[in-house]
C-alpha cells in the first residue's frame, strides 16, 4: 500500500505515511494480542489430566519446519509428568517460548534449544533454555508484563505479549514462570506446575 500511494508524496509526506502504517501495524498486533488473551481466559474452563510429554512433542512437531530452517538443535531430557491442565493453553505456552528462542537466536552461532524436567517438593519444573542473545538479568522481570518487549530493534520487535501469556497460562494451572537470563548464556524460562492441583482451584 505504501508503494501505491507514496509516488505522489514528497519526502516529509512519505515519512508521515510510513509512520502511520507502522503505528497501525503495532495497533493491530496489540488487538490480536488482546483477542488471544480473551481466548486464554475462555479455555481455562476445559481442564483434564494430560501428559506434558505429549504437549511438548506436539509443539516440536508443529515447529519442525522452522527449526530445520534455522538449523536449530533441540535437546529434550527428562521424564515429563502428567498434570491437570488444558492441552491448547499448554501448547500455546511452550509454542511462545520456542518461538522466542528462534526469533531471538544468536545468528553468529548454531542455535541450540534445551528442554528438560526437574522437580521440587511441591512443583514439577520444565526448563526451556536457548543460547540466544538473552537480556540483562536486572531487567528480566520487566518483560513479563503485557506489551513489554525484549528488544527495541525494528527487525526483532513484536507485540510484546508472549511472556505475559506464558505467565497467565502458568498461573491458570496453579504455577508460575521464572526467567533465567543474561547477555552471555542466552535466555531460559522455568515453568512450574504444582504436583497437586484440583479443578475446583480454578
Which structural class do the helices and strands define?
alpha+beta
Range of helix content: 40-55%
Number of domains: 2
CATH architectural type of the largest domain: 2-Layer Sandwich
N to C succession of SSEs:
HHEHHEEHEEHEE
Number-wise, the strands total 7
Overall pLDDT level: 76
How is the largest sheet built, in terms of strand order? Answer: 2-4-5-7-6
Principal-axes geometry comes out as globular
Q: Which residues sit in consecutive blocks of at least 5 with pLDDT less than 50? A: 150-160
CATH class of the largest domain: Alpha Beta
Assembly state here? single chain
Strand content: 15-25%
The radius of gyration over CA amounts to 19 Å
Give the CATH H-level superfamily of the largest domain.
Histidine kinase-like ATPase, C-terminal domain
What is the number of helices? 6
Query: What is the CATH T-level topology of the largest domain?
Result: Heat Shock Protein 90
The largest pleated sheet is described as: 5 strands, mixed
**Straight-line N-to-C gap:** 46 Å
Describe, in plain words, how this protein is organized in 3D.
The radius of gyration is 19 Å and the shape is globular. A five-stranded mixed β-sheet has the order 2-4-5-7-6, with helices on one face. It has a two-stranded antiparallel ribbon with strand order 1-3. The model is unreliable at 150-160 (pLDDT under 50). It is α+β, with helices and mostly antiparallel strands and 202 residues long. It folds into two domains: 1-43; 47-194, Heat Shock Protein 90 (2-Layer Sandwich). The chain has helices at residues 2-6, 11-43, 52-62, 64-70, 87-103, 162-172, and strands spanning 48-51, 73-77, 82-85, 112-119, 123-130, 176-182, 186-194. The longest helix is centred in the N-terminal third of the chain and has 33 residues, at 11-43. 42% of the residues lie in helices and 22% in strands. It contains six helices and seven strands; from the N terminus they run H-H-E-H-H-E-E-H-E-E-H-E-E.
Amino acid at each position: 500500500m505504501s508503494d501505491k500511494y507514496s509516488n505522489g508524496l514528497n519526502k516529509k509526506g512519505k515519512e508521515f505515511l510510513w509512520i502511520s502504517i507502522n503505528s497501525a501495524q503495532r495497533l493491530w498486533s496489540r488487538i490480536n494480542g488482546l483477542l488471544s488473551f480473551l481466548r486464554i481466559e475462555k479455555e481455562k474452563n476445559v481442564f483434564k489430566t494430560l501428559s506434558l510429554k505429549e504437549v511438548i512433542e506436539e509443539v516440536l512437531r508443529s515447529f519442525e519446519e522452522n527449526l530445520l530452517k534455522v538449523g536449530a538443535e533441540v535437546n529434550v531430557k527428562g521424564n515429563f509428568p502428567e498434570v491437570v491442565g488444558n492441552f491448547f493453553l499448554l501448547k500455546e505456552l511452550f509454542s511462545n517460548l520456542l518461538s522466542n528462542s528462534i526469533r531471538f537466536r544468536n545468528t553468529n552461532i548454531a542455535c541450540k534449544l534445551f528442554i528438560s524436567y526437574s522437580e521440587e517438593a511441591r512443583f514439577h519444573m520444565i526448563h526451556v533454555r536457548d543460547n540466544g542473545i538473552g537480556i540483562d538479568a536486572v531487567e528480566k522481570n520487566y518483560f513479563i508484563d503485557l506489551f513489554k518487549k525484549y528488544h527495541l530493534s525494528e527487525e526483532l520487535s513484536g507485540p510484546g505479549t508472549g511472556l505475559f501469556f506464558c505467565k497467565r497460562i502458568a498461573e491458570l494451572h496453579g504455577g508460575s514462570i521464572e526467567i533465567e537470563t543474561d547477555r552471555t548464556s542466552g535466555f531460559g524460562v522455568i515453568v512450574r506446575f504444582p504436583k497437586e492441583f484440583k479443578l475446583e482451584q480454578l
